[in-house]
Amino acid sequence: MSNKIFITQPFLPPLEEYTELLKMIWTSKQLTNNGPFHQQFEKELANYLGVKYVSLFNNATTGLLVAIKALELKGEIITTPYSFVATAHSIMWSGLTPVFVDTDSYAGNLNPEKVEEAINDKTGGILAVHNYGIPGDVDGLQKVADKYNLPLLYDAAPAIGVKYKGNSIFDYGDLAVASFHGTKVITTFEGGAIVSRSKEMKIKIDQLKNFSILDEEKITGVGINGKMNEVEAAMGLLQFKYFGQLIKKRKAIYQKYDSHIKNIKGLKLFLIPKTIEYNYAFAPVFFAAGKNYRDEMYLKMRENNILCRKYWYPLITEHNVYKNSVTSDLTNAKKNSESVLCLPIYPELGKLDFKRIIKILKS
Ligand SMILES: Cc1ncc(COP(=O)(O)O)c(C=O)c1O
After folding, report:
1. Which residues lie below 8 Å from residue 233, measured CB to CB, with a gap of 6+?
2. CA angle 318, 322, 325 (to 5 degrees)
3. From the CB of 155, is ligand 1 less than 6 Å away?
4. pLDDT band for position 61 (50/70/90)?
5. Eight-class DSSP state of 344
6. Are 335 and 105 in contact (CB under 8 A)?
7. Of the chain's two ends, which shows fewer C-beta atoms within 10 Å, N or C?
8. 84: CA distance to ligand 1 center in Å?
9. What angle do CA 268, 273, 278 make, to 5 degrees?
């Protein structure tokens, strides 16, 4: 049987380079709590993103929980059903109520008009996602948020390196949360970060992620442990060195997919608009013929050891725990959910493996 092709594969830098950094940790014996690698990665990340304030986290989910707490969100939070469950879980874990509204029919991002329709006097904020790392109508969403004076939080988990109209996508919203999980374009094994807009907010977030400790004898509230450790931060620094090359390789694969898929009737790879510099985190393909055909292709791929994923099927609102949530009409999200298949994409996806994928897609 041929080798398994996963939806993604992490990039791991040369082990010798990582060992050098690990030796430094063994010498310093500082394993966590804002150590030197943590400080350096935070600084380099801020520089790279062109933002002033970054706070590293142990994962994006804790980042989302802390972001919700830092923004002091209350009541109902308008969000998307077309995402990884962590988006909605972070609202529920905060004791708030998710209200699900429809997305656009392109990359599956929140539709600002639908958001506006759902706003009432219980609405406390908006939690939007840059789905697949592809920005939606971020200007439209900001307008709605401003009009009703609502905080706008972005789950930007897969969006590291993405630009919109020349600016980092992390420039949008009151706070934006990234993930460095093993499935992401750059990884720290597990990890995350919050980008904030002011020094005061960064200080607040940094306290919240460290049990709300102010000093040895004082706490300022009910914080949590959201800290990234030194082993993870060192990995982040090292990955960063290769970031440009990684995106280039991903882009080449995406373009190769496009050149084949545009000739396959009924299939469409998401076309990246000129306003977006994408990180090619995902390669989502939409099947015009709908769910049965998509599912058939998913199974055919599996039979051939190619593990594509139906991101995001089912919708979050179709899981039992969310079945009784407040939703509006979710036509676009449902259509996307039933027609999408994400193809394998990672820098080291070889030519032969790529051919295997295309052969089945064309069958
Ligand atoms: C949209 C989205 N939000 C949140 C998360 C959670 O990230 P983490 O695994 O770093 O907690 C993910 C992870 O894959 C994600 O895709």
Report:
1. 35, 37, 38, 40, 41, 42, 56, 188
2. 110
3. yes
4. very high
5. P
6. yes
7. N
8. 7
9. 90
